[in-house]
């Protein structure tokens, strides 16, 4: 009980939760921006580019994983196989 009161009401195990959540949020935001950059740079068809950008903007972080596994990863593997 003393430990709880000394940490301003924050249990010891949750003391760094705010910093961890902030780092996770910043990391996910960077990946999200990179996915949009990759879409703008590598999508050749204008319709698919606009569609993927709309999906990335609306779907946020879930759409990033769909874009990564559905578009980016196969393109990376095809480039490695061609090289």
- Following the backbone from N to C, one meets helices and strands in this order, namely HHH
Rg: 20 Å
The shape, in one word, is globular
Count of discrete domains? 1
Total count of helical runs of at least 4 residues: 3
Average pLDDT, all residues = 84
Q: Can you describe this structure?
A:
The structure is a single chain. This protein is mainly alpha-helical. It has one domain. 82% of the residues lie in helices and 0% in strands. It is built from three helices and no strands. The longest helix has 37 residues, at 46-82. The radius of gyration is 20 Å and the shape is globular. The N and C termini lie far apart (62 Å). 7% of the residues are buried. The model has no long low-confidence stretch (mean pLDDT 84).
Topology:
Layout: H1 2-6, H2 17-42, H3 46-82
Characteristics:
83 residues, mainly alpha, 3 helices
Brief overview, please?
This protein is 82% helix and 0% strand. It has 83 residues and is mostly helical. It starts with a helix and ends with a helix.
């Amino acid at each position: 009980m003393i430990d709880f009161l000394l940490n301003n009401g924050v249990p010891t195990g949750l003391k760094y939760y705010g910093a961890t959540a902030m780092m996770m949020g910043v990391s996910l935001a960077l990946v999200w921006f990179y996915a949009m950059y990759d879409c703008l740079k590598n999508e050749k068809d204008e319709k698919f580019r606009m569609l993927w950008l709309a999906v990335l903007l609306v779907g946020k972080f879930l759409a990033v994983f769909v874009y990564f596994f559905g578009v980016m990863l196969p393109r990376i593997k095809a480039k490695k196989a061609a090289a």
